[in-house]
DNA sequence: AAGCACCGCAACCGCCTCGCC
DNA sequence: GGGCGAGGCGGTTGCGGTGCT
């Protein structure tokens, strides 16, 4: 015999938010501000817990939320900051304007950890960190450079979806890689340098200088790939048969940089790869083989 | 075309911390 | 100082979409 449900259990809705609920929440917060989530939920007329309202607002409805795939710059930031702080998603998110801890957490679990699994190494192990330092970071940096140069040369061309310039990296904001760093620029790759690993030696020096991508992070947060803020986004929503709604993402869900080591390695080229192997036999013997052979027998 | 497997992400859960009384 | 509630955070789950066979 099922336990009788209490009034409290019946009081709160769960599951996907409806368009109506979103509108209620948005309008209440616009008029009264956020905080005091439990009372907010009641006063807004929402049959949701305060926690649920807070989560919905912070992760989805807040106007400055960036959507779409993470740019190479953002991915680099995540890799770097995670190496510093571990799974402190909210702390990492503070350094990625418009990105939520939930989004970063999802990215880490679905992309980065997947790669670690394919390499048969723990995502929090030193070996995995070496793989990140040795392959993905240089590749991401290279992608940033490519996007920078190709964007500058092709951005004036037609920007329809078939344009090569709107491939994931090209769709990302162009980050200027000037050689005159701001004096207060900090290099988030510092700990890669001090790791005793010389893998980054092949990365163009202008990228690894004090004028690293980090000093441009605010610029990369430009909304060129982001979805419009929630208030505008709602116009893209569609109603599903059960009354919940979803957002049609077809217009903005460009594929971001894959951490797929195979394609990553393909972008590096052999000579570069050889240079990066110095001083790290484990990488040479294990990761490299795995990376090269991942799609093989 | 249909079925299946995989993937990405929104949302929930449970624990922890903090502030107030 | 202890209890309590609210908020915050990291971990996990479930569902819808997509690609593959």
Automatic annotation (TrEMBL):
Residue ranges of coiled coil: none
Domain Myb-like: 9-61, 62-112
Main localization (coarse): nucleus
Alphabetized PROSITE patterns for the sequence: HTH_MYB, MYB_LIKE
Keyword Signal included in the entry's annotation: no
Subcellular location: Nucleus
Keyword tRNA processing: no
Domain of life: Eukaryota
Keyword line: DNA-binding, Nucleus, Repeat, Transcription, Transcription regulation
GO cellular component terms listed in the entry, alphabetical order: nucleus
Domain HTH myb-type: 9-61, 62-116
GO MF annotation terms: DNA-binding transcription factor activity; sequence-specific DNA binding
Name of the protein in question: Uncharacterized protein
Origin organism lineage: Eukaryota, Viridiplantae, Streptophyta, Embryophyta, Tracheophyta
